[in-house]
Amino acid sequence: MNPFFLLFIGLPALEIFLLIKIGGQIGALNTVALIFLTAIIGLYFAKLQGIQTLKSGMVNLYQNKMPIYEMMSGASIAIAALLLIIPGFFTDLIGFLLLIPFTRKIFLSLALKNKPMEDIKKKSETIDAEIVENKKDDT
Question: Which of 40, 43, 41, 20 is nearest to 31 (CA)?
Fold first, then answer.
């Protein structure tokens, strides 16, 4: 099945279904209030996680390490914030899961075809070499 179909048709249909089911259980106004509450709380935690990731990336830069995990983590935090802004309970769930560092590592390792983050951090493209000058006497 086409992934764009699932994204543009299936996801909104799932969100509408969940909104109707939850709204039927707790009421319409409580559902709207819950949507706003999850967005506000989620964006607050996204801000905290973003600042923490930025600090971790700066520490890696000061240690002359490439902050690959921090860059990918920052991108996933931005995606989580976007998902939390979109009204709906399924996108909020995915957004909150992306904000938790443990589950974020799981999602990132799945996205990188099951390569552990440590292997990506250790991978170096630097070649060590030494220049040797060989001068011959012209006598």
Answer: 20
